[in-house]
Amino acid sequence: xxxxxxxxxxxxxxxxxxxxxxxxxxxxxxxxxxxxxxxxxxxxxxxxxxxxxxxxxxxxxxxxxxxxxxxxxxxxxxxxxxxxxxxxxxxxxxxxxxxxxxxxxxxxxxxxxxxxxxxxxxxxxxxxxxxxxxxxxxxxxxxxxxxxxxxxxxxxxxxxxxxxxxxxxxxxxxxxxxxxxxxxxxxxxxxxxxxxxxxxxxxxxxxxxxxxxxxxxxxxxxxxxxxxxxxxxxxxxxxxxxxxxxxxxxxxxxxxxxxxxxxxxxxxxxxxxxxxxxxxxxxxxxxxxxxxxxxxxxxxxxxxxxxxxxxxxxxxxxxxxxxxxxxxxxxxxxxxxxxxxxxxxxxxxxxxxxxxxxx
Length: 359
Known about the structure:
Number of helices: 9
Oligomer: single chain
Helix content: 25-40%
Largest sheet: 9 strands, mixed
Strand order of the largest sheet: 8-5-9-10-4-11-12-13-14
């Protein structure tokens, strides 16, 4: 009797190992979406995994505080730790100087114990010969295995990481036109096309203060909108993620809404008013907050199902004055006890005072 053949179906689950799981710095999601980390663990959880490859992320700045730089620095550092190419554009004349402010990843408990063992073994070796044993390479390999790192804002990124990666810096201020900037982005993005059939190599684009007054085209509203539309089309068909920060106060109301409509993921940061007694009474942990983060829109790639968030406004805190932490807002109880963290706390609500937190 002939051996029975195992019947397979097109609906059978593929048990083979996905090549995405073997690539550091990316995470597969539903509907064929691939995520890269934002560099902030809490933000990745809020967005459902991070920033999808091929998406455009826009962050609305606050004119009173540079909190958008906190998000931008972590986004850039996370990509460099994962050996991902980076294109950074800034309105300053020397954008490469900004790389010296990027934070360094925090060592986990296992890495700290491993480094202490290495330090004990290193006592037997003269310190000037340590560089020949590849300790820096081992540390970077351990950091690259994590999808999202915590970063120490007080400690700059190690120089060997900056020197080993492919980093392109572009001064928007010295750019003769937006077409030259568009060509620069196009040449960078095309190197990681999704249709090459090879291994996925994500890349990151970080554009700071796109409509800053230092730029010669800051008043060319339609040209800047056309650039954003072109950039979104570029990253959609590539393995890149683009993050643009912009001050909406420098745009007209109509163009600001057009910019926000172009974003796949739209975030906004806001500074906390100095010594706001009403907010101090309303919120728990007010003294530890440095700002607010509002999630206006979450990317919907390969799906029409809307993303429903439990909360849209979060407090920005510095854990131990070094790492960024996002927490849902808690209304202060009557007895003055402190609230809980992002995962279990309730959202702020109720009362006429809620209008203070509106963006």
